[in-house]
Design brief:
By secondary structure, the chain is an alpha/beta fold. It has a single domain (2-14, 26-228), classed as Glycerol-3-phosphate (1)-acyltransferase. Helix content is 43%, strand content 18%. The radius of gyration is 17 Å and the shape is globular. The two termini are 23 Å apart.
């Protein structure tokens, strides 16, 4: 029953919020994956640049699995300040509290059991950080949460927000190739994937200038390959994490 209420809660929220959001943020998404395995959940892993990011993930989820719901890790204090976020799938966490982390992991697992095709959102930086920061500063917590709901398809998401020719800024969003996670995933692998996607976004913006929003989306993977001139990234061996979840 809970999963159905989650889906209905999101739909009711979208009816009011989406028109408001569209007047304040232009959204451009490139390279959405096709034919994801419907038998397992999806975990959207993204860099964190703004207050809008959770709703950017919602837009991606609606394109990938419109009949499902999105559950996203957020700081407990943010959920306490904005209770509506908890009602639309926010799962609270206090990063310095092992008990809080364990509760959040168990909530992820419970959502997965109730809704096998659920979509989860995770920001491994843990705080809002400029998209051009290097290194991006991903933390290992993403490994723990991926392991908790594995097998899971992990989808890297690179977000960059740019002022342009419109009053509302534009979110340029590049979606990477899915990574099938059987046990866990290396957080440094994900950081490198998103690092490359962001670099491709900057190259595109530098080339297209004020017409970037109109010209988007490029085939970001091709830009990444042109910039890097290196072999494609492959998944690293699963990395052990300190906390066991039963």
């Amino acid at each position: 029953m809970g999963s159905r209420l989650d889906i209905l809660g999101w739909r009711a929220f979208d009816m009011v919020f989406q028109p408001w959001m569209k007047r304040r943020l232009q959204l451009r998404i490139a390279d959405l994956p096709q034919d994801l395995d419907a038998s397992e959940p999806v975990m959207l892993v993204a860099n964190h640049v703004s207050w809008w990011d959770g709703f950017v993930l919602r837009a991606i989820q609606m394109r990938l699995r419109p009949s499902s719901a999105l559950y996203t890790i957020a700081l407990e204090r943010e959920l306490n300040q904005h209770s509506i976020l908890r009602a639309i799938g926010g799962i609270g966490i206090e990063p310095d509290s092992p008990d809080s982390i364990l509760r959040a992991v168990r909530q992820f697992q419970a959502k997965r059991r109730k809704l096998p095709d659920a979509v989860f959102g995770y920001f491994p930086q843990g705080c809002i950080t400029a998209s051009f920061r290097r290194p991006l500063g991903f933390r290992r917590g993403v490994e723990l949460f991926a392991r908790a709901i594995a097998p899971v398809t992990i989808v890297p998401v690179a977000i960059h927000i740019e002022p342009g020719v419109c009053l509302a800024p534009t979110a340029f969003v590049s979606v990477g190739a899915p990574i099938h996670c059987v046990e866990s995933v290396d957080h440094l692998l994900l950081e490198r994937e998103i690092h490359d996607l962001l670099d491709a976004t900057y190259a595109f913006l530098a080339e297209h200038g004020e017409s970037s929003a109109a010209d988007w989306p490029p085939v970001v993977a091709q830009v990444v390959n042109r910039l890097s001139h290196r072999a494609p990234v492959t998944a690293a061996e699963p990395v052990a994490v300190a906390m066991r979840v039963h």
